[in-house]
Specification:
Blueprint lengths: L4 E6 L3 H13 L5 E7 L15 H8 L4 H8 L2 E3 L1 E5 L7 E5 L12 H10 L11 H7 L20 E3 L2 H14 L3 E4 L2 E6 L6 E6 L4 E3 L2 E4 L6 H6 L4 E3 L8 E7 L9 E6 L2 E7 L4 E7 L6 H10 L10 E4 L3 E3 L3 E2 L2 E3 L5 E2 L7 H14 L13 H27 L6 H8 L4 H13 L12 H10 L16 H21 L3 H9 L10
Parallel strand pairs: 1-2, 1-11, 2-7, 4-14, 11-20
Antiparallel strand pairs: 3-6, 4-5, 8-9, 9-10, 12-18, 13-16, 13-17, 14-15, 15-16, 18-21, 19-20
The structure holds flavin-adenine dinucleotide (FAD).
């Protein structure tokens, strides 16, 4: 075994501390030393509140206790996202977590439902998804240990404060040997021959040397772009929102166990309930809406009193052409950004951290090269992850049924061949084929395609193997069982109060 790899993480936002936590668990000191540099003067992006179920996997890898995580990050539970007005004013649908119904036979569940729909029966597809049924009733229960209970299959994520999560993970990583340095990096030193990063210089003159650098410096991409010129693939013509304005507000009496995404004139508004406050924000296209109008739209539609002034945020949608260049890998906003419509950024950080752990290089060889195949793998996977999310987000915009210049632009924009083929296939035959490694699988595509108004002309002929009476009975049984089971779960706010008490807003961080 050679000398330990000297890893330097630049940035102490959610990405930096998730990376430090993951690496500090995976790498004993004889394998790697971990230093994280962050600047209080620069600060973090300060938003990020909704997640998807994979976050529980990350926390369990770190052996983080769920109750402690929820208490520290003021988390609530999330069963999906309600989309309001995307299919036109007055319409709403849900993208719930988990699957629909059960697989009776050879065809996927929704084909039996489509067969009933052709006869004007079958109700709403959401009647057959437990998360959606719980959400409608405002209820939540963790998965029941009784495997015979439908509640054993509850799939959930969290709403939480990503800033508090970073703070929590900081103590986790420091307890496992990660070193934190406070200071602003003013210079990046590179080897004059190889271009490899050798060290970074702080404002006070300290030089921090390293073997491998992880750029978690946020949108600025201090190392990956500033020093290594990785290049940026701009996707703003595909996803035209480029700004957001965010404001916290007081909680209403009832805390929905889901995120709400309400379509607005030139973008959409999020509403995310935490234990002690509600996070709100409007994501919009600056070509179609002014900053003042965005702030006004947001403030005039809050459900509780604003707890701070609205905060503007600018962003550029796209990804670094290479997330790993020479001896530096980017994780978090420095690797790329896709708007938060499906709450995917923290998940992409998590993927970045697990890929880094899988691809951890040894000490650089005398020639300075890290294994190029590790780098290629990391870059290829990262590209697929970002493209998959991009296409899924574009579906929401492409298949909208709203009036106005922004929404017309979104309907008319070009989409990838893969997305077009997927929409056409579903429209023609009700079929969905997603790959094993895709983040959003068949149930997610089903919810959003149906919700956005793409209704199949046909269903899988294999659904004809069951008699129509059996289909009727089976579906009625599922929806009845889900309704009955959901009614046994406590209301979301009652569950939270029972486990975490009533938070005192005056003493909380907003
Ligand atoms: P940052 O938080 O920007 O951290 C950058 C770090 O680098 C800071 O510590 C800073 O001090 C440091 N730094 C920078 N330059 C220097 C320097 N020169 N010297 C020293 N240190 C430096 N994600 C979700 O999963 N769910 C959501 O609901 C969600 N909502 C979002 C809403 C909006 C409007 C936006 C813009 C993003 C949202 N995200 C969401 C994304 C999420 O906020 C980020 O992915 C996450 O916070 C990670 O940010 P980061 O750590 O990469 O960058």
């Amino acid at each position: 075994m050679g000398a330990p790899l000297n890893i330097v993480i630049v940035g102490g936002g959610t990405a930096g501390w998730m990376t430090a936590a993951g690496l500090s668990l995976a790498c004993p000191p004889q394998l790697a030393t971990i230093t994280l540099i962050e600047s209080d003067d620069i600060g973090t992006i300060g938003v990020g509140e909704a997640s998807i179920p994979s976050i529980a996997h990350f926390n369990s890898l770190l052996r983080i206790d769920e109750r402690e995580f929820m208490a520290k990050t003021r988390a609530t539970f999330k069963l999906g996202i309600e989309f309001v007005g995307w299919g036109g004013e007055g319409q709403s649908y849900m993208h719930p977590f988990g699957s629909f119904g059960t697989n009776f036979d050879l065809a996927a569940f929704h084909h039996y439902w489509l067969r009933l729909k052709q006869m004007g029966e079958g109700g709403d597809i959401l009647d057959y998804n437990l998360s959606a049924v719980l959400s409608r009733q405002g209820r939540f229960a963790p998965p029941s240990p009784d495997k015979n209970s439908p509640l054993s299959s509850v799939v959930y994520a969290y709403h939480f404060d990503a800033g508090l999560y970073a703070r929590y993970l900081r103590s986790y990583a420091e307890a496992r040997g990660a070193r934190r340095l406070e200071g602003m990096i003013t210079q990046v030193g590179q080897n004059s021959e190889t271009g490899y990063i050798e060290g970074v210089t702080l404002k006070d003159g300290r030089v921090i040397a390293g073997d491998f650098f992880i750029d978690c410096s946020g949108f600025r991409g201090l190392l990956i772009e500033g020093a290594l010129k990785a290049g940026f693939e701009d996707w703003s013509h595909l996803l035209p929102c480029d700004r957001a304005v965010a404001v916290p507000s007081e909680n209403p009496a009832q805390l929905t166990p889901y995120t709400r995404a309400t379509a607005r004139k030139a973008g959409w508004q999020w509403r995310i309930p935490l234990q002690h406050r509600t996070g709100n924000g409007l994501v919009y296209s600056s070509s179609h809406m002014s900053d003042d109008e965005a702030a006004q739209t947001l403030l005039s539609s809050l459900e509780g009193k604003a707890l701070a002034d609205p905060r503007p945020i600018r962003f550029l949608t796209g990804r670094r052409k290479s997330a790993w260049v020479k001896n530096c890998a980017a994780v978090g906003l420095s690797a790329g950004f896709l708007e938060p419509l499906e709450s995917t950024s923290i998940h992409l950080i998590q993927k970045g951290v697990s890929k880094l752990i899988q691809c951890l290089p040894r000490q650089a060889t005398a020639g300075g090269a890290f294994a190029p195949h590790l780098m290629d793998h990391f870059n290829r996977e990262t590209r697929h992850e970002y493209e998959d999310v991009r296409d899924f987000l574009m579906l929401h915009y492409k298949a909208n049924a709203r009036d106005g210049a922004f929404w017309r632009y979104c309907r008319e924009q070009d989409i990838s061949d893969r997305l077009k083929a997927r929409m056409d296939l579903f429209r023609e035959s009700g079929r969905i084929f997603t790959g094993e490694t895709e983040l959003f699988r068949d149930p997610s595509w089903l919810s959003v395609m149906l919700g956005q108004g793409i209704f199949p002309q046909d269903y899988d002929p294999l659904a004809d193997r069951m008699t129509i009476d059996d289909i009727r009975q089976n579906l009625a049984h599922i929806s009845r069982t889900y309704l009955r089971s959901a009614a046994q779960a406590p209301r979301h706010e009652d569950f939270l109060q029972q486990h975490f008490g009533k938070p005192n807003i005056a003493t909380e961080i907003v």
